[in-house]
Amino acid sequence: MSDPRFEQFLGRAIGLNAASIGSSAIERAVAARCKACKLGDIQAYWELLQNSDEEVQELIEAVIVPETWFFRDAQAFAALARLVMRGLPQADAIRPLRLLSLPCSSGEEPYTIAMALLDAGLTAGQFRIDAIDLSARSLALARQGVYGRNSFRGQNLAFRDRYFDATKDGHRLRDAVRAPVEFSQGNIVAPDFHADPAGYDFVFCRNLLIYFDGATQKHVIGVIRRLLAPDGIAFVGHSEAGLMGANGFTSAKIPMAFAFHRESAKPGATQARPVPSPPIHRPRREPPPLAKSRPVLPQSPRHEEKREAALPNLEELRLLADRGRLQEAALGCEALIRRDGATPDALALLGLISDASNDLGAAERYYRKALYLDPANAEALGHLALLLKKQGDHGGAKLLDERLRRLDKRRVR
Questions:
Q1: Burial of 53 (0-12, 13-18, 19+ CB in 10 A)
Q2: Distance (Å, rounded) from C-alpha 222 to C-alpha 247?
């Protein structure tokens, strides 16, 4: 049975909720450190822990087991790229974009942010990324910038050829990606954490809140609020979206990116249309094809009215997709199309769902159908441009990007 003192100690030190990783994980870490320090019993180790900052850090390192890879949950990075490509906010040499990755672990997330921005057309001088983590060991790996097979997952690895060089030790990141990223050690629950920064345009704080208890979650969300610029956007993990909404943040309405504005953000300041999302590499779930609708049994008029009234609207379907409930969202879109006919927005959402389900052929068909009905549909234009780029059709993607830029200029006028 684990000693509750160590769980309480880690709770005070780093805000860790023992239930989030299990008491047995903490027990194993304590036993490993006790053995490494050549101590005969737990009490001796407890006393050492009270008097050694170095050993506190060693225990933290033993408890923290980072699990990350490049372009993990890629929708957030696609959202970032589309917002920046549309000039939200503006980036230049005088006022570069400021971004924060916390926790940055061994560097895959902040380097992914850099690659996404470079792919979006920014130069390394137009953005700066602060990457912060509690683990000195992870930061040392991040600064080396050499990664093995576990950091590259999924089938879409074209970025590795663009930004890495193969070496005998692994794949070494090129300087163009490393240059805008600055690593530092920090503890977000510490009272003096990042006390006086300028506001960040984007904060990536994904899959961190889930490790805290309720009180610490509220505190950390308050820190995120303080770190964000007034019109900034925070990206969190999918299981943390409800916490942000319950603590005064507003969804940016970008399906499956889990992006949020501060409550004080001006309406429409950075609220772009939903952005294209690289595929999630998971078991394929196809939205039902439009041409093969299910037969509808005869209903009484009254029953039919109730059935149609119960259908969610398109905004509700977007929220379902945003929460990862892709099949429900796809079925809802199909039902709306059966009832009201195909609309560009419904087709574009079906394209996004197919994209996220890794059915790229269906995604492209839906996007093109949406553009057939509405050639100025910005959502379908943006999604299809990134999809073509992923498939290697850079010429086609460039044409669509130019159409989207012309459309944005007309709207500004």
A1: exposed
A2: 9
Euclidean distance between the first and the last CA atom of the chain, given in angstroms as a whole number: 68
Tell me: the pLDDT tens digits for 232-247? Answer: 999 998 888 888 988 8
Q: Which helix (H) or strand (E) holds 173?
A: strand 170-173
CA distance 187 to 131: 12
All domains in the chain, ordered by first residue: 4-63 (no CATH), 75-261 (3.40.50.150), 290-412 (1.25.40.10)
Closest CA to 124 of 143, 96, 104: 96
CA 175, 176, 178, 181 dihedral sign is: positive
CA-to-CA separations, 395 to 77, 85, 391, 402, in angstroms, rounded: 22, 17, 11, 11
- Give the residue from 104, 150, 159 showing the smallest Cα distance to 130: 104
Query: Is 52 within 8 Å of 244 (Cβ atoms)?
Result: no
For residue 203, the SS3 value is strand
| pTM (two decimals) | 0.66
User: CA 69, 274, 330 angle in degrees (round to 5)?
Assistant: 85
Q: Reduced to 3 states, what is the DSSP secondary structure of residue 195?
A: coil
Q: What is the Cα–Cα distance from 273 to 245, expressed in whole angstroms?
A: 20
Query: d(Cα 137, Cα 26) in Å, to the nearest integer?
Result: 18
Q: What would the two tokens of residue 315 be? A: 């905004």
Q: How far apart are CA 185 and CA 192, in angstroms?
A: 13
Q: How confident is the model at residue 174 (pLDDT cuts 50, 70, 90)?
A: very high
Q: How far is CA 74 from the centre of its chain?
A: 6
* Contact assessment for residue 98 and residue 200, using Cβ atoms and an 8 Å cutoff: yes
Residue with tokens 């999604």: 383
Q: Looking at the predicted structure, is the pLDDT value of residue 17 above 50?
A: yes
